[in-house]
Amino acid sequence: MPPAVVLVTGVSRWLGGALAAELAADPAIDRVIGVDTVPPPPEVLRRLGRTEFVRADIRSPLIGKVIESASVDTVVHMNISATPASAGGRASMKELNVIGTMQLLAACQRSTSLRRLVLKSTSAVYGASSRDPAVFTETMQARRVPSGGFAKDSLDIEGYVRSYARRRPDVGVAVLRSTNLIGPRIDSLLSGFLRMPVVPTALGYDARVQLLHEDDAVAVLRQATTGDFVGTVNVGSTGTVLLSQAIRRLGRVALPVPEQAMGAVGRLTRRAGLVGGSVDWSPEQMRFLNFGRVVDTRVLREEFGYTPQYSTEEALADYARTLPPVLRPELVDEAAASARTLLGRVAGGVAVVRSIAGDRHRPAPAVPGLRAVHDA
Questions:
Q1: What is the C-alpha separation between 75 and 104, in angstroms, rounded?
Q2: What is the dihedral of CA 308, 311, 315, 320, to 10 degrees?
Q3: 278 to each of 42, 218, 221, 285, how far by Cα in Å?
Q4: pTM, to two decimals
Q5: What is the DSSP code (8-state) at residue 51?
Q6: 128-186: pLDDT as tens digits
Q7: Nearest CA among 47, 15, 315 for reference residue 183
Q8: Whole-angstrom distance between the N-terminal and C-terminal Cα of the chain?
Q9: Secondary-structure percent of the chain, ordered helix, strand, coil, rounded to 5
Q10: Cα three-residue angle 99-101-106, rounded to 5 degrees
Q11: How many angstroms separate the CA atoms of 372 and 365, rounded?
C-alpha cells in the first residue's frame, strides 16, 4: 500500500528535491511535504511539482507540529550535512546532524499516524583502514571506528534510529547505507574532490572506489519510501575503480604528496579558493582516499529488490561527460604507456648489466683436494 502523506527533510538539496519530485509525480500519493531551513534553489524548485515546501528547522519543535497537523505517515530523513563548510562549521554541522535527528525522532515518537521511516545513511559508517575486509556486509562493523566528522555523525544517527525502532515496533524502519554518489547534477563529497584540475593523492596509496549514480540513488530512495523493506541495506553499484583510474579517466592530473602533507594541501587549496564547500579534508575522508571502501550489495539486489542501472565505471563515465578535462584521458594513457615502455627498457638494460657483472665476478669452481684458507 503506497503512503498517503510523505515528509522529506533536506528537500532544498539536489537529492532531496529529486526524490520529492519523483514522489509528487505519483498520483497514488496524496501529499508530499518538503522541509528545509532554506528555500530550494530555482533549478530544484522547478522540479518539485505539487510538493508543499515548509521552511522549518528540524532542530525546533515546529517539525513535530508539521508531522502531526498533516498526519504524515512516512518520513524520509535526508537533512544530514556532509561537510563543515556547507553547514557553517563543525559545531553547526554536528548540531544539525545529531541534535536535528534527535528532535525529528522525538516528533516521530509522538506521532500516531507515522507508519514508516527511511534514513538516508552512508557507507562511511564502516570507516576506512588498512585492516578492512575486501567487502563490507551489513552485519559488519568498522575495523577502525570513525572518530569525527560526517562518518561519526552518521554512526550516532544510526544508533538513535535503531533505538527508535525498538521503541516503535509498529513503524517500519529502513536504513540505506549508500556509497559515494556521483553524476552530472549532484554535488557530492567525491565529485567535488575529483573536480579539481590537480588532484592531490597520498603517495604510495591507491584506493578502491565504489560509486552510485545519482539516478540509482533516487530510484532506491523512492522504492524504500513506497515499499515495505525493513532493515539496513548497502546501496552501491557493481564493480570498482582505483582512485588513480578515476582521476585519469576524468582528465585530471594526480599530484602524489606525502600522506602527512595531505591536510596542509587541503587547507592551502581551500584558502586559495580552488575547491568548493563540498570537498571534505577531514581525517576520516583522507583515510577513505588512502584505503577506499567496498560494500557487498547482495541484500540490495535479492532482498530489497533493486539492481542499479549504472555500474561504477558507467557512473564515472556519465559524470565525465559534463566535466571538461584538464588533459584528455588518451594523452594521459599515451604518456603512461610511454613511461612504462621506457621503464621496461631501463629494467631490461639493468638485468643485462647485472648478468654480465655476475659472470665477471662469479667465483672460480672448487678444485678437489684444496681447502679454503681464512684470515685469522
A1: 9
A2: -160
A3: 19, 20, 22, 12
A4: 0.84
A5: -
A6: 999 999 999 999 999 999 988 889 999 999 999 999 999 999 999 999 999 999 999 99
A7: 315
A8: 95
A9: 45, 15, 40
A10: 95
A11: 12
